Amino acid sequence: MRREEIDTVRVLWQEMPGEFTATLAFAVGARDEDVDQLGITHLVTRHLLVSLLAEPDETAGLLETSFTLSGEPTRVAEDLTDLAALVANPDLGGLVLTARQLDAADRAIELDLDVDDAVRDPWASLLARRLGPTGPGLLRWPAVDAHRFTADEVRAHLARWFSAGNAVLTCTGPPPAGLRLRLPAGPRAAHTTSPSGGPAGPAWYADEVVAPAIAVTATSGPQAFLLLRVLGTRAEALLERAVVKAWSTEWSTPAGGDRLELGLSLHLRGKNRQRDSAVAARVLWQELLRLAAEEPALAELAAVVTRYTRSPAEDPRLRAGLERLGVLAAAEQAHAQAPLADAGHRELFAVYDEFGEAEAAAAARLGPADVRAAAASWLSSALLVVPVGVDIALDGMTRTGCPAGSFTPQGELLRPSLARRLRGAKDSLVLGDDGCHHVAADGTVHSFPMGDVMLVQRRGETLLGNIRHGCLVDVSGFTGVDKLVTRVPPRRHRIAHD
Question: Which domain of life is it from (predicted)?
């Protein structure tokens, strides 16, 4: 792999067969946004595309924003040069039009959230509960209505994050002659995330989520790679055996320093969601417990490394699925280019949200005892989320929740509507001067201070959130609940379009 610089931008390239491809990546994503600026990176990238005649493949994810162009090298060089010029001197005259044309579902896709119900994504709930209103802890909340962003905010965001020192270009061949990358000067970015916190584990809690998920606070490296892949493989097999129709997503989300939030979130497809959620929650916890108590078989670990290193065409199950979708060739090309992409990630990030060649190579040198020791050392940090209403009892896990009290502050009392009462609700909502207070049937008071409140409306529902604790409560069906819209700051009123 060759290395050089163009206009102080780091460039990595390697000769590869096939069409010439170049990716300009910046170390900025949703984790670098403020809670009142969520979605600004997505808006910036889409506006740059509207301004650019060519349309590169772009992604504004959790950690990274990238633009990928393929084709004749001279044309790619011209488009990259134009893109860099737009970053340095953006034309923001059409920003309002871009904001109107944004598809909010695109952001959910780029962040790997549940597209059908992103605000109830279980992994986003775990991150919000663990990390609060910083870094990946913000993943749960919908974006600010894009028309609220000003041109000055967008310009400042570009200047801070889209700089030469915070960028890397990777190419599948030598950089074309004449390529210029005259980005604004600036250093490699520093990313701020609060230390992992939340309840002492192992613990579980109920939340407005679509399915269960489990997380541990881990150290990045090959042990995390092996543990996650073995846990995912075992859970999938056990859920199939229990006739739970589900598929899982593996997560390794950087949480500051060398720490990861590591785990699995599930997506249920069956009709009996409560039964399936209870079974799935037990499977996730019991398999994590088993990994902490018993060494996995050496063959299990070898299979994990083999699956990672072989190409999609060499994996019979994966190949069949990719062929049905007509994307086998694209998957093969992505696999061939993975070492180049991995090198670019290492250039921008100390810890990335995907495992690369380095972790896989180191994992091949580990044994079963290493995986068991890692699982045992991380077990006390385990946190499990289940949907509201799911009744479980897990040995070794305690139930946790948001701080609550018994004193009901003064304010306007909102009672449940007849429809809500017919569903068995006996709670109430109090709108005070300094916050909102949900009073449960047993008198427990869950407070939402106005400085921490988030109001999400979607599909006829009204959801009340606390960004500090990461929680979400369904307050639909209270008489006068629309008064909340006038109580919360405008940017904390989010319309979810998932």
Answer: Bacteria
Burial 319-357 (b: 16+ CB within 10 A, else e): beebeeeeebeebbbeeebbebbbbbbbbbbebbbebbe
Per DSSP, the three-state class of 3 is strand
Beta strand residue intervals within 276-372, DSSP E: none
- Give the distance from CA 240 to its chain's centroid: 26
Cis peptide before 254 (omega within 30 of 0): no
3-state DSSP of 344-407: HHHHHCCCCCCCCHHHHHHHCCCCHHHHHHHHHHHHHHCEEEEECCCCCCCCCCEECCCCCECC
Instruction: Say which CATH class 412-495 falls into.
Output: mainly beta
Q: Give CATH 3.30.830.10 domain extents, the chain.
A: 2-171, 203-399
Residue extent(s) of CATH 2.30.29 domains in the chain: 412-495
State residue 297 phi and psi, 5-degree precision: -70, 145
* Strand-pair partners of 219: 259
The candidate with the shortest Cα–Cα distance to 92, out of 143, 42, 51, is 51
**pLDDT tens-digit readout, 446-498:** 999 999 999 999 888 899 999 999 999 999 988 888 899 988 999 999 987 65
Structure token digits, residue 495: 């319309």
Task: Render pLDDT for 141-166 as a digit per residue (tens, 0 to 9).
Answer: 999 998 899 999 999 999 999 999 99
What is the rounded distance in angstroms from the CA atom of residue 275 to the CA atom of residue 278? 5
Tell me, rounded to whole angstroms, the distance of Cα 448 from its chain centroid: 24
Tell me yes or no: is domain 203-399 CATH 3.40.50.300.
no
Residues 131/135/141/144 CA torsion (nearest 10 deg)? 150
Longest Cα–Cα distance of the chain, Å, equals 72
DSSP β-bridge partners for residue 462: 457
SS3 85: helix
CATH no. of 2-171:
3.30.830.10
